[in-house]
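Entry
Fold in token form

___
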Amino acid sequence: MVMKRLLLAAAFLGAISASVMAIELPPDIVKRGSLKVALVPNYPPMEFRDPATNALSGFDIDLGEAIGRKLGVKIEWTETSFAEFMPSISTGRVDAILSGFTDYASRHEIASFVDYLRSGPKFFVQQSRASEFKDMAALCGKKVGASRRTMFPAEIDKWSQKNCGSNPVQFVGTDGSADARNQLRQGRIDAAVQGNETLPYLMDLEPGTYAPVGDPFATQFTGIALPVKEKALQQAMLEAVDALIADGTYKTLLTKWKLSDNAIEKATINAGQ
């Protein structure tokens, strides 16, 4: 009986060890025992600081910690600025970026992306003016704001050229998504653009304030940015995300943060265009 218990215990420990050790990390990360991950915590529900505790919170935080457990390493979150994302990867200051970062082909020279979420830009207006924007065509000729630090300006221009003809959207660049919403509330712009992964959360935070217009007008992927040359780390991240999809953790986190509509079936590398 004792021997049977010992064998069961050994099998159990072996299974735990295999679940952590089966994914191979680069030797320097294994030796360090941690992954340095950059973020900008101002993009709820992806990442933000809890107003009550000031602790990091959000889908990306939960996902990152779950990845760390799969890989058997600690996640060292490093706050930076959006402008420093790519330099921090290229200089090796961080191992990864996990911060609602969109996978674009234009970024592939410096970073490779393990894609874990499907997203897309979406127009929204003040709820009080929703009747003026019954469809997306009503946005033609209007002032539309979005963060100038994203690819949203290019996507808005592409949509406008395709749909508005001689009455194009008047784009207004903003200093981030919060500034876009502020200008919308002040009436300085007619509409704004936000990733459809964040808009439902913001509408819950400010009920009766915003109304979406139409569907996402482009398809994008959100990914974990990693150094181009770190193929082993890219493969490890890919396998870790797939393992979280397989064991149900990914679905649980999506449900928690109201992101189920943004789910992917399998992680990919550099699927962004």
Remarks:
- The chain has two domains: 2-119+220-269, 121-213.
- DSSP finds nine helices and 14 strands in the chain.
- Confidence is low (pLDDT under 50) at residues 1-21.
